[in-house]
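[Discussion] Sanity-checking designs against the backbone

I'm trying to build intuition for which residues belong where. Below is a structure token string of 289 positions. I'd appreciate it if someone posts a full sequence so I can compare it with mine line by line.
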């Protein structure tokens, strides 16, 4: 095992193929873990840190760090950007966290953070601050926690899983959305893959939807799209309806998009809320043009 220590200047530090401990100290450092299961400490300054091939634990420290991890990454102080890894912790300030390809856990912690899930089944925790949580593909669980958060179960820039122009659909998923304290916005539509606009969860009938676990109509919002367009299909004005949840699914109010397929598509379930207590004309429903 090697212990590698930088200086208070701008250093370039490289680990070995063993299990190393690397300290960047001050300055704007460029650090690579290389092989082995390393511990990397960026220290002060806006550092750029790459984990390498092992299961590394990376601590950004002070400054706006950019961390490319493989296992656990901790941003620390500053507006950090964390990419990849199994567990990502933003720390203080306003951080951006992007998960990798596995089943990952993202923790925004303090500040107004942006968390982006990947292609598998991720868990996203916003914690304090007004956070944006985007689950991406897979069966995700999103927890806004404190603050006025925005939760999206499916990624806005996901590429369709298969199909030709006019028949593209998105990989089915069942996401759990929990806003927590504060006035939260649960979003069920938007720009898809940068070239279409429409509702999420329109692929598998009752097999894909977003489940809102703690909707409070006195302060929370549900955002739905009014138009479906792109991918070579004719523009459609989407109409919605509310009904009791289908048999076998979580109890509550189901939200259906009625005219974007051969039959109504289940978009969302507002859990433990009866259909007669909600109205699409009330202000807690917002419609995106």
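Best answer:
Here's mine. Compare freely.
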């Amino acid at each position: 095992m090697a212990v590698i220590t930088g200086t208070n200047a701008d250093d370039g530090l490289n680990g070995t193929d063993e299990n190393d401990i690397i300290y960047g100290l001050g300055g704007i450092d460029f650090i690579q873990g290389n092989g082995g299961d390393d511990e990397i400490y960026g220290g002060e300054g806006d550092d750029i840190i790459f984990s390498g091939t092992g299961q590394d634990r990376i601590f950004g420290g002070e400054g706006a760090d950019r961390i490319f991890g493989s296992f656990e990454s901790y941003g620390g102080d500053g507006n950090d950007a964390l990419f990849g890894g199994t567990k990502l912790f933003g720390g203080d300030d306003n951080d951006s966290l992007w998960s990798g390809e596995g089943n990952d856990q993202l923790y925004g912690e303090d500040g107004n953070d942006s968390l982006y899930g990947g292609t598998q089944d991720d868990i996203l925790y916003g914690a304090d601050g007004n956070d944006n949580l985007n689950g991406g593909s897979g069966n995700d669980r999103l927890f806004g926690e404190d603050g006025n958060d925005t939760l999206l179960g499916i990624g806005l820039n996901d590429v369709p899983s298969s199909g030709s122009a006019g028949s593209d659909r998105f990989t089915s998923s069942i996401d759990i959305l929990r806003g927590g304290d504060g006035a939260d916005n649960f979003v069920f539509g938007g720009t898809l893959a940068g070239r279409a606009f429409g509702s999420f969860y329109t692929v598998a009938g009752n097999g894909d939807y977003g489940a809102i676990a703690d909707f409070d109509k006195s302060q929370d919002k549900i955002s739905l799209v009014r138009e479906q367009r792109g991918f070579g299909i004719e523009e459609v004005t989407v109409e919605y309806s509310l009904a009791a949840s289908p048999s076998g699914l979580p109890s509550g109010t189901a939200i259906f998009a009625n005219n974007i397929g051969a039959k109504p598509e289940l978009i969302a379930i507002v859990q433990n809320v009866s259909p007669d207590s909600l109205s699409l004309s009330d202000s807690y429903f917002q419609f995106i043009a």
